[in-house]
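Here we describe the complex-level prediction in full. Unlike the single-chain runs in Section 2.1, the two entities below were treated as one system.
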Amino acid sequence: GQNIDQPTEMTATEGAIVQINCTYQTSGFNGLFWYQQHAGEAPTFLSYNVLDGLEEKGRFSSFLSRSKGYSYLLLKELQMKDSASYLCAVREEQAGTALIFGKGTTLSVSS
Amino acid sequence: SAVISQKPSRDICQRGTSLTIQCQVDSQVTMMFWYRQQPGQSLTLIATANQGSEATYESGFVIDKFPISRPNLTFSTLTVSNLSPEDSSIYLCSVGTSPSYEQYFGPGTRLTVT
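The structure predicted for the assembly as a whole is:
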């Protein structure tokens, strides 16, 4: 079956670093995605990993270990605007096909 | 990247009626999907909208309840039929283009059933 797990909630302070973990068990694997979703808005694409290792994009980095079924999203120099839900999603099949989403992690950043 | 618009952005409907949601993309895309996001929950795939053929539905979703049309490569509709309060949710259109890996989401339609 399909299972994608991530923590429900996390809190952090401005300027800090936070790591949001995601573990997955799916029938196939063709990429892991992270999305950011602010309340009342659509998800926006943050990162994509298909090979093992770290992908860095500004303040955000994403890591993947396919053998462990594990990924994390690292957010550095946290800002208040980073308060949002972070969704981990897996694509099981070929490029262009639908994603399976985890339940999301709500991150609250305080000053 | 693709720009996706949805209509309506929100609606309040009575039990037993239907709502049709439109999704328009500014470029031709291979794949279009419809997701549901219930209050406080993550996204659940309803179906893949196939151009020129019947949609492919996920387990737990049926064509009679969620009929989908996709007449061309830039447009799709999702109808939520025989509405009940349990259908209150956000419905999101999403597109993906092979061989690109990215998938984009529309702004969503917030449906409230009374």
